[in-house]
Each structure stands twice: as structure tokens, then as C-alpha cells.
Amino acid sequence: MICRTHLPRWCFEAEFRETATLLARSQVAVYPIDARGLTTSPVYGAANAGTKYGQSPVAAGKDEMKFAQQTGQENQTMLQLADDTGGRAFVNTNGLSEAVSKAVEAGSSYYTLTYSPTNTEPDGKLRRISIETQNKGLVLSYRRGYYGSGAADVAKTPGVEPVATAQRSSTATERVMMRGAPASTQILFTVRVLPVSQAAGAKLADGNSLTVEGEKLKGAFRPYTIDLVADQRSLVFVQSPDGVHHDIIEFLIAVYDRDGTLINRTGSSIHADLSAANFAHFLETPLTFNQDVSVPDKGEYFLRIAVHDLNGDRFGSVEVPVSAIKNLAPLGTPPVRSTVSSQHQ
């Protein structure tokens, strides 16, 4: 990965933090490599030889400071992203092949450690993570921290509308639903996808909407059914002054071809308005969802499935290649029974 920017990181702090958080939550460690190699100040380049700086030492000093500042900001961005995701940045080196080899080697061997934080306050603040070993000579690469959910400003405001984050989350939804994007794990869920039948036809499943590209396709569509069970405790509810808990949960399904072209989409949303008693029961009951989706019968396609909590602006997503499920037994097919006979002499 080559990361170059002419802006200081604080100019896009929110975007940087969101990107690093999404990568870390998806267990993606970033190893940025500056392909420019060892950088030197253009002030001392042959192209600037002569009278350009000879007659103006002040100009030389300004350009030298500008170069140092710009290079420092670029390197700091790469170093920070690597540090936040547990990777390693390679800057100011001409050993690009060696850098790639080290990145591949480091990314091929790792341990997964999990823990449950004691601080569950959704204040959006940075929580530091520190891992130590008995061998003091080791240098560890791991995720250095995470940010608490930024939904505190919504959840703590009495009477606030549950859709307060809907506008700012539209871009995030597009990123999560993009073909080939890393899976989002802010909301954990289990999903089962099965063919509805072996037959294909022209009729689309209820609630499905073909895109312009999808309408151009010639041929039949095959229906698949999606059963999803989500972790209800991952959702952020808003409590209004009358004690009712509110949230809006979206279920999103998209069909892409191998080139990432959106073909079909469907989904639905739940507007939850729960009394205190119903909310307590809700927390003990997994959240379920079922939807049929139509996929072109011929060709290579992918299903993108996501759950979106609008209050917390949290996502859970997964991508399923249709080739992995198209040959499964259709929903409702009786299990195959085998009869074993034995003979005794």
C-alpha cells in the first residue's frame, strides 16, 4: 500500500479514525510502503542548482522547511495507520523488495487475542491496549487501541429522533455494501443462505428491485432464501422521556456480478418502539430476519448481506459467493436417508 498525502492528518481526523477502526475491526493489518524510497530535499537537486537559492537563502530555507513538513506528515500518516491496525510502515528505504517480503512474512504469522472491555461507555474516546511479554527483547505489532462507540451524543439526549445518524451514515452504508469490502463486525450475526428451489424463472422475489444493469440481463433468475440471526445486544437504543426505547435496524442485501456491478437489491427495516418490559424481553431474544433474493441463474454472482443499526451507526456485513451455495439442497428438501444392512454368518 502506498500512502501519500499533502494534508496533515488532523485535516481529515474523522475519516482517518473511521478508516482505521473499520480496518482493525475487520482484522486487517496495514503495512504501508512508500514506493518513493529514500527521499531527499529537492533544494539540493541538480535542477535547482545555480542562482535560484544562491541569491535567496530565505527561499531555500522556506522550501526546505516545506519539504520536511510535508514528508513528515506523509510518513506520520503511514506510521499511525500501521500502528492503529497492528501493521508496520516502511518509509525512507530503497529496499522495497525487502519491505514487501517482511510485510508478507509478518502478515502470514499471527495470533488472535480477544478480551471483553470493562469500560462499556459509548463516549467515542480512545481506549489504549497494551500487550507485554516476558521477553523484553521482542517488538510486538498489534492494534494499539480502539474508539468507544460514538453514539453517546445520541443515546444520552432525551427525546432525540432515532434517525439522527441516518444522513451521515449513507456514505458508510455504501462502503459497507461495496463488493469485496472487508466484512464489518460491529454487529455479529449468523446467516444461512439456501436455494428456494432448483427451478429458475422470470419472476423476481417479493421486494426485489433490479438496477438498470440488472434489467439488461437476459435469462432466468433463481430464488435464494436468507435466514439471519443477529446479536441484539450490539444495538444502540434511545430511551425517550416516557421510558420507551427506540431504534431503527436495517437489513440490506445486494447482488453483484464478478466485476462489482450491482444487479439486484432488497431488504427491509424495523422501527422498534419498545416499552421497558418489552425491551427487557428483547435483550434476551435474538433478532431474526428472513428475506428471499433473486440471482441470475447463469454467471458468477455474489451476495452482500448487512445489518445496520442507525442509532449507533454500526454495521455487520458478510459476502457470500453464490457458487458456494447454488448446489446445496433447496430449502425444505427432506434429508437423505441411507439404509445399512448387515449379514451374519
Description:
The chain is α+β, with helices and mostly antiparallel strands and 345 residues long. The chain has 2 domains: 9-116, no CATH class; 153-324, no CATH class. The protein is built from 8 helices and 11 strands. The protein has helices at 13-25, 51-54, 57-85, 96-107, 152-155, 166-176, 212-215, 276-282; strands at residues 126-128, 145-147, 189-195, 209-210, 221-230, 238-239, 245-257, 262-274, 287-296, 301-309, 314-321. Strands 4, 6, 7, 8, 10 and 11 form a 6-stranded antiparallel sheet that branches. Strand 6 (238-239) and strand 7 form a beta hairpin. The longest helix is centred in the first third of the chain and has 29 residues, at 57-85. It is globular and about 85 Å long. Mean pLDDT is 79; it is low at 1-11, 151-168 and 336-345.
Which helices and strands appear, and what pairs or packs with what?
Elements: H1 13-25, H2 51-54, H3 57-85, H4 96-107, E1 126-128, E2 145-147, H5 152-155, H6 166-176, E3 189-195, E4 209-210, H7 212-215, E5 221-230, E6 238-239, E7 245-257, E8 262-274, H8 276-282, E9 287-296, E10 301-309, E11 314-321
- Name the overall outline: globular
* Number of strand elements: 11
Beta-strand share of residues: 15-25%
Low-confidence stretches: 1-11, 151-168, 336-345
Radius of gyration: 26 Å
Helical segment tally? Answer: 8
Overall pLDDT confidence: 79
Helix residue percentage: 10-25%
User: Which structural class should the secondary elements be placed in?
Assistant: alpha+beta
Q: Order of SSEs, N→C?
A: HHHHEEHHEEHEEEEHEEE
Q: What separation lies between the terminal Cα atoms?
A: 70 Å
Largest sheet: 6 strands, antiparallel
The total tally of domains equals: 2
